[in-house]
Amino acid sequence: MKGRSGGRPVKSSKQYLHQVIAEYEALDRELPCIRKFPTPPAAQPLCLCVETSPEEDLTHLEVLQALEAELPGAMENGCVSSIRYENMNVICGTAGRRDRWLITVTDFQTRSRLLRSGLCLRGLPYPLVRHDDLLLDDYRLHLRRSLVRRRMLEALGAEPTED
User: Which residues contact 64 (CB under 8 A, 6 or more apart)?
Assistant: First the structure.
């Protein structure tokens, strides 16, 4: 006896539900911490990022000194407008995420130079990347999880809510 639920046989609905739940759980194991976004991130083309492990416990002064080694007088000359620390573990409510140091420059020439050179922090080389690229990756993961969550709630017959 096949019952019908939402136009699908009960057995296939249960299979679909199990598939969606398995996909959600797999995503959760693969990516336990995904940053949430209420709106798409705004472009910041002059913002660069260096990721470091939380154990390194860097200071703003160390990042500034590394910048000054690449661009003498970077702050005084106006090539760099800000250095900001982002604790990704606090933002995502987890542990094990890399910290982000955001460096905002004032022109594309400085950005290109720093992207090529990277920074030397505590004697070790660190690449700089465009912060927009990292945010876009984070946003894509957020959308992926939201979609899987929505599908799971729809399969359960619940109304999806905003993340």
Answer: 74, 75, 83
84 within 8 A of 100, measured Cβ to Cβ: no
Is pTM beyond 0.70 here?
no
CB 49 within 8 A of CB 103: yes
C-alpha 22/C-alpha 151 separation (Å) is: 12
| Pairing mode of beta strands 124-126, 129-130 | unpaired
Which pLDDT tens digits describe the chain residue by residue (163 residues)?
444 444 444 456 677 766 766 766 666 555 556 666 678 878 899 999 999 887 888 999 999 999 999 999 888 888 999 999 987 655 555 656 678 899 999 999 999 999 999 999 999 999 999 999 988 888 888 787 777 767 767 766 655 555 5
